Amino acid sequence: MGGLADHIAQLVVNGAMTGAILAVPAIGLTLIHAVLRFPNFAIAAHATVGAFAGYVANVALGLPILPAVLLAFLVAGVVGVATDEVVLKPFRPRGSITTAIASVALTIALENVIRFGFGNELRGYDLPIERDWRLGTIRIGPQQVENLAIAAAAVAALFAFLAFTRTGKAMRAVADNPMLASIKSIDADMVGRLVSFVGMGLAGLGGMLIGLDTTIDPLTGFRAVLSVFAAAVVGGLGSIPGAVIGALTVGIGEELCLLVLKPEYRSAVGFTAILLVLTLRPRGILGQRAY
Amino acid sequence: MENYLIAMAVTGCLYALMSLGVNMTWGLAGMVNLGLIGFFAVGAYISALLTLKLGLPIVVGIAAGALAAALTGSAVALITARLRGDYLAIVTLGFAETIRIAASNEIWLTNGTDGLSGIPGPWRGTISPEMYNLLFLAIVAPVVAITYWLAERLTRAPFGRVLRAIRDDEPLVAAAGKSAIAFKVKAFALSSAALGVAGALYGHYTSYIAPEIFVPLLTLYIKLALLTGGRANNLGAVVGGFFVVFLLESARFVIPLVPGLSAVQGAALREFIIAALLIVILRLRPNGLFPEPRLVVPVPPQGRS
Predict the structure, then answer these.
(1) For chain B, which end, N or C, has fewer CB atoms within 10 Å of the first or last residue's CB respectively?
(2) Rounded to the nearest 10 degrees, what angle do helices A266-280 and B58-80 cross at?
């Protein structure tokens, strides 16, 4: 009996760790949805772009993890702004559906740019091998703790940015009421670019954090995209605190389902969470109305 | 060479069938299906399993595949019918991924990533492979013709008019006393049934299906087919299906001519070109290369007042 309780405790801890990492791209997705108003599936490719940018920094240039993660954020953010400006922005006046389709095509295109350059093989980061820490019966890897700290710092920085800076407030204003924001002469184009940079940067950072736990390949982002969408939808699409709560819920839920399911079904658990939330409470935990 | 062309014609017919199915939802009703490959997979697996494991006739397998795809399609549409269109996009994409995960992991049923082989085909083995291709073309071509005819009838019927009205102004449909939800679910069921039939036929044609076949890229192929043909244009959907097969096959011949590319790079270049082309056409001709035909609706003569 004690064995099961310990096992569950371990799964909850693992889930909270996974959830914290998941929260980073989920915030990126929900931020883009709040301001630019479409589900941006290109979050998948940008997570992969970030993971590979971090890989180049860490393995080829020999940088430690922290600067590599920063580079993952910057590269994915810049690619995000560039592709949004060239590819997605012209679609936005035509509605969210057309833009969403274009974002899927963009994801496949970017993924193949990575595949062209790096091939299909699995790659791992250059990490020191460390012994797991033990807290009672629960085991925690030092790398996991570092990932958790990076994720928490990124989320905290974003909250501070949105709450205290003028630009952050402008973003929230456009998300809240674009008409009123334009009357107050907030430049929606500029805010859009900034949101693409921050949102896709977070996706890239999240992609690298996911990669630090396992390995990376051109499908790294795509494999995670369902869990990222699940986190955003469960929390309420468009709500940033919602994305954090949603990510923790989905992360812990996915781990607990390992009691009865094979690990391969992780994404399917996210999908089930999406279906449940859309059936019972479409606006999610903290979101706005969904119709 | 002839055999190759016949095989491509069969593939073209299957793409045309999927494209016709997707036209019902994306073209007419404006509903997006980013996981259409999932419904194709449901049809393929159900029909393959019923004929392979239970020994049922192929026709029964295909019908069951269509029915299963239609039922899952209705469920997906029902869950998202009241919500904004972007939720349907998320759920359909998730659906296709989940089907692929289940097909990869339920090894007792689907043989996992090794896939199902030896799926029966009509008179396979008793006739030459060339004759088999020709026979299969003689089966799928009428299926496409019948589906086209049905789709045209539905497009011109009140059913099709309501779907276009939902696409253009959903509240208006509700104001006219029509249940938009019921129409959307029906349209999605019909569309998924066509996808299921295409999947089932695909399995019986190639005799082999595996999870790796049902990748998101195929969804983009069909979107591209529909766009090149023209949205809400059934003839365009058929032409677009053949055009995409032509495009993919041409790329297969042209890309190896580029010097210094590895096999992986060649494949990546091909996928990149397809995705980029979809973006360009969607951008320049959002309603496709051929326009939606303007339907003239006969006004019934006014009764005596």
Answers:
(1) C
(2) 50
Q: Which residue of A has its CA nearest to B275?
A: A105
Contact in structure between B119 and B203 (CB atoms under 8 Å): yes
| pLDDT given for residue B298 in this prediction | 66
- Chain B environment of A260 (Cβ under 8 Å): none
How far, in Å, CA of A101 to CA of B86, rounded?
10
Taking CB atoms and an 8 Å cut-off, how many pairs form between chains A and B? 134
Chain B nearest-CA distance from A146, in A, is 31
A258 touches chain B (CB under 8 A): no
Q: Any idea how long chain B is?
A: 305
Residue A127 CB: number of other CB atoms within 10 A?
A: 12
Tens-place pLDDT, residues A183-195: 888 888 999 999 9
The residues spanned by each domain of chain B are: 2-215
Q: Is residue A257 part of a domain?
A: no
Q: Is residue A226 part of a domain?
A: no
Q: What is the pLDDT of residues A136-168, one digit of tens each?
A: 888 888 888 999 999 999 999 999 999 999 999
> B153 to chain A, minimum CA–CA distance in Å?
27
**Model ipTM?**
0.90
Looking from the CA of B266 toward its CB, the CA atoms found within 13 Å total 15
A45 CA: distance to closest CA in chain B (Å): 13
- For chain B, helix (H) and strand (E) counts, in that order, are 12, 2
Q: Pick the range with the lowest mean pLDDT from A78-92, A243-257, B118-132, B197-211.
A: B118-132
A97 in contact with B, Cβ within 8 Å: yes
Mean confidence (pLDDT) of chain A: 92
Per the structure, the complete domain to which residue A200 belongs is given by 2-220
Residue contact A41–B34, C-beta within 8 A? yes
